[in-house]
Hints:
With 68 residues, this protein is α/β, with parallel strands linked by helices. It has helices spanning 11-23, 34-44, 60-67, and strands at residues 3-7, 27-31, 48-51.
Amino acid sequence: MQTILVVDKDKKVSQALTHRLGKAGFKCLVAFSGEDALRQARAKKPDLVILELLLPGISGLDICKFLK
Length: 68
């Protein structure tokens, strides 16, 4: 099963995405801040990251640079 990390500060958006992705057969991880997204991405190595650019703390663009 492939894993997707959903990163969005809006909990309703994250819930909607993870619900639909879960029904499609994906395992979903959720992060609400840039710091949490980096921690989870490094520890759990998701196959895909869906990332909001305007996050509190570390921006989505900076997260992309760190994960690259």
